[in-house]
Specification:
Order of helices and strands: HHHHHHHHHHHHHHHHHHHHHHH
Shape: elongated
Helix content: 55-70%
Number of strands: 0
CATH topology of the largest domain: ADP-ribosylglycohydrolase fold
């Protein structure tokens, strides 16, 4: 699901300027989210609002697509879907456009069985793309995502798609030179699936998708939706893609991932970071002459400071969420967790100072790199103008003023 958004953002600048190579800058300043990300997020919101109640899912899908679609009306919709968005009561229009397949990834994530993935896919798709080719494409992508999350192999996923949906008897190399722009499901979805099947990792899958040209953002979104379910998405790629989204859309994503895709929120690298912060806090405590028991408390606080990522909801930050859980469990230093992201917190303590000091020196891999390299890494991932980077700069200045 995050993979679809990454593919869309990366492919956004190549839709009308195709390239026929895998060698290109993954993110540029001109990248942006398009209708592919927006409708993917609208479907996420529909699942959240309907609580997986199939009788409500279609209504909620229409509602959220219309609401977000009208809010971000100029993000790249085709003319027929734009008209659908403005209808008083939107009705299907027998479309077999690839919009059917680019928005369906949440169905493969939420589903508990492959039959449920098919059912969710149909409910989501038939509200507009009720042509047999549109329905088939959406189901093919949703079931491929489901199988990827079930740890099926690439050969098993290929066999499933070939048996039930498409002839995949071609390679990207064989079509790259002559492949042209095609927004139909039958002319772009098989190509997007093969881009995943020929990949070696998540980034390679996205590069495969863009390299064939055509409807680059949508093809990469479809490829990314499957690849994101199959591979571990690098934190740096995920975080960079999120910088291109407004806060209201990121909030929906966080709520959905908290409910259905928690393993991507609290990633392995965040755990490495937390362990590194824990070690650094204990080290600072020793240098300051803290008792052995206090050093142990510092270590535990460092290890716990980011666990709130696993439970984020209702637009609250990971620090606030983690602090609330720890407070409920009578943890002594819950306020340190709640306030560790803040550059102007009214709450002050020596343990909070040490937590921020360590957090701003330990990189995403758990390595002690110092303040400057840590800030450079944050800037590269979130952007120089991002709120995250600016807040971290202020925290570092505050820490250094106290040292």
């Amino acid at each position: 699901m995050i993979g679809a958004i990454i593919g869309d953002v990366v492919g956004s600048i190549y839709e009308w300027n195709n390239i026929k190579t895998k060698e290109f800058e993954l993110f540029s300043k001109d990248c942006h989210f398009t209708d592919d990300s927006l409708m993917t997020i609208a479907v996420m919101k529909a699942f959240l609002d309907s609580e997986q109640d199939q009788s409500k899912l279609q209504e909620k899908t229409i509602h959220n697509m219309v609401e977000l679609g009208r809010k971000y009306y100029d993000c790249g919709f085709g003319p027929r879907f734009q008209k659908w968005l403005l209808e008083e009561k939107p009705t299907p229009y027998n479309s077999f456009g690839n919009g059917a397949a680019m928005r369906v990834s949440a169905a493969g994530i939420v589903a508990k069985t492959i039959e449920e993935a098919k059912t969710f896919s149909r409910i989501i798709t038939e509200i507009s793309h009720n042509h047999t080719e549109g329905l088939k494409a959406a189901e093919a992508v949703a079931t491929a995502i489901f199988l990827a999350r079930q740890k099926k192999s690439i050969s098993e996923i290929r066999e499933w798609i070939t048996k039930n949906y498409y002839d995949l008897d071609f390679t990207l190399d064989s079509i790259r030179k002559n492949y042209t722009f095609d927004v139909s499901c039958q002319g772009s979805v098989p190509q997007a699936i093969v881009a995943f099947l020929e990949s070696t990792n998540f980034e390679d899958a996205i590069r495969n998708a863009v390299s064939i040209g055509g409807d680059s953002d949508t093809i990469a979104a479809i490829t990314g939706s499957i690849a994101g379910a199959y591979y571990q998405i690098p934190d740096s790629i995920q975080e960079k893609a999120m910088t291109f989204l407004p806060d209201d859309l990121k909030d929906i994503i966080n709520q959905f991932m908290t409910r259905y895709d928690k393993e991507n929120l609290l990633s392995r690298k965040r755990i490495h970071h937390s362990y590194g912060v824990a070690l650094k806090m204990a080290e600072i405590g020793r240098e300051k002459g803290y008792t052995e028991e206090e050093q142990e408390d510092l270590f535990l606080l460092g290890f716990l400071h980011d666990f709130g990522y696993h439970f984020m909801k209702n637009g609250k930050s990971h620090g606030i969420v983690g602090g609330e859980i720890l407070k409920r469990n009578h943890y002594q230093y819950w306020q340190e967790v709640s306030h560790h992201e803040e550059d102007d917190s009214p709450y002050q303590s020596s343990f909070l100072d040490i937590l921020q000091q360590a957090d701003m020196q330990i990189d995403k891999n758990g390595e002690d790199v110092g303040y400057q390299k840590r800030l450079e890494d944050i800037k590269s991932r979130y952007g120089e103008d991002s709120k995250v980077y600016q807040k971290c700069q202020k925290i570092v200045k505050k820490i250094q003023a106290k040292e």
